[in-house]
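B., you asked whether I could sanity-check this one before it goes into the benchmark set. Here's the sequence:
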Amino acid sequence: MILVDSTLTGYLCWQILTHQEVLVLKWIKRLALVATAILLLALLTGFVYEQWGRRSVDRAFPPPGILVEVDDKLSHLYCSGEGSPTVILEAGINEGGSQTWEMVRPAIAPLSRVCAYDQAGIMWSERRERPRDAEHIVEDLHALLTAAGESPPYVMVGHSLGGLMIRVFADHFSDEVVGFVFVDSSHPEQNKRFPADILDIMAFPSPLLLRAISAFGVLRLESPASPGGLPQEVGETIRAHLPQSMIGITDVIEAMDDIFSQAQHTGPFGDLPIVVLTAGQFLEQHPYQIDAATTARLQDVWSDIWPRLQAELTGLSTNTDWRVIEGASHYIPLDAPEAIVAAVRDVVAAQREDTPVRHTDGPIIRQVWF
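And here's what the prediction gave me:
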């Protein structure tokens, strides 16, 4: 009797526990369904909010230049001034695109014709489906200039990654380029020269993450402050376009290895006039939130390798001038636009007069020798 009672009691307890487990599983499933529904609703709301925001931005911030149709896509080009050669401003990988140059372009216009533009998917230019490596970017730029009625010769000005772009442009259209200004330009071999831990610190976020926060309204809600140094209205314009511009930037990030590889096979460029501008304090106000020891490591490595890479850019021609801009960070177009204007003036003068490029005006500079 005791054995039967024990067996029955155990069976009843098992039934009760099994029933409770079933109830718990049912509640877990219900909660999972509710959580999924809430997540999907949030994503849908964010997506709708972002699409509404983009339409509002298009109305509130019309392009200052012209929209030119190239291969069924609209691209934004902003030109001013007259005279030859035409100066082309290439921002590289930058959410501001043509607007990055608003402290520079108006000052160059009295000297010669000058054009800034937006790469595909950035600011007012429509996104393109083909890869955003350097070769495709420069082909698109050349097609844009041609379609807009702009004509060579060109002086190419490239900031940061834009320095690689203008090298590839000159390699593809060598008979149209008559000079360069490299503005704290990237170097084709920099990712091979810097240690792995430094590259990890400087790495871009995941492209998937960037696309997600752009598509679902996160960037529009939590967009960073407008770039310093620009007029307020220009900064507001860049900030308003940031979510859609981030998609274009991400396209370039995904092609980064190809961009460096393509640029590595360019040059030299004979005796074309070249001015190399280098930031005097790239890492003294480093924007990343990192600890003091990592910052010190980054500064030590960067201050050793970066000037050497910049010095190598002077070997792209037998007619070069290297200027290190005191007090300027990597963002020379914002910190020292007058240095870029002076460099353009000197390259244009060298091209027009067929003379060696020389420093005639601009901020205090220093030269570095190794």
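One thing to flag: The two ends are 99 Å apart (CA to CA). Otherwise nothing jumped out at me.
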